[in-house]
Amino acid sequence: MTVAEPPLIAVLRGQRSTGDGVHLVSRNYSKGLRLDPHVHREAQLVYAAEGTMQVTTPKGRWLVPPDRAVWVPARLEHAIDVLADIEMRTLYFELPWLKRERRAKRLDKEFVVKVSSLLQQGILALFDSRNTAERIDLLIRLVMLELRQAEDSTTFMPLPQEERCRRAANIVLADPTATYDIETLARTVGTSGRTLSRLFSLETQLSFKSWCQRARIAAAIERLSTDANVSVKQLAAQLGYASVPAFSAAFRQVTGRTPTEFARRG
Description:
Blueprint: E1 15-17, E2 22-29, E3 34-38, E4 43-48, E5 53-57, E6 60-64, E7 68-72, E8 78-82, E9 86-93, H1 95-100, E10 111-114, H2 117-125, H3 133-149, E11 156-158, H4 163-174, H5 182-189, H6 193-204, H7 208-226, H8 232-238, H9 244-255, H10 259-265
Antiparallel strand pairs: 1-2, 2-9, 3-8, 4-7, 4-9, 5-6, 5-8, 6-11, 7-10
Helix pairs in contact: 2-3, 4-5, 5-6, 8-9
């Protein structure tokens, strides 16, 4: 699907410019909203101070709870699904600014980072209406420094591009709670289990088993973000885990938190 680049809106409610190639936009979005595939002339750092969103690019999709932030390069097509009401804080960086800062090459691909306490406070402080130009400049430099040191997020779901592998991935994503036998799945998409296993490793850098586990955890994150009444025990059973401890361990491995800790914050 080809998406034409929309013109950058000159004036947005909640938008401010630093006057030096960086723009700050504060927006709130309600659960269920979808920002269809689009691109920007600027690179952007997207952070949700509250709530959870899902960001999809041709490379894959990320679930982004409040302790994650998304880096999206300029002119990269992406879509955003709001899974729970979010308070979005976005920093837009004009390309001349990035080139002048000698960081454009490093930030030429999309990624999601785990947000440190310092990075979080730096982003939020940028939206303080009492800021001076000097303070904004220092905060932006702090944010960029922390961004360079931040770890990439394990909430990424790589989407394979090879046709048979992509069809298999879509079957799993349609119902990640099911248990999938790779031989049966391979026959469904017209290949062998050995070939499909090789394709998953090649295209996603994950084994088929690990990819399916990540899909289950992604489903758990989405459910915890959208259903305040779901219990961890109930969710573990629905996702096919033998016990709550097994589910919690797998969840922590991907997100760095237990399901209970995630639900409490998200």
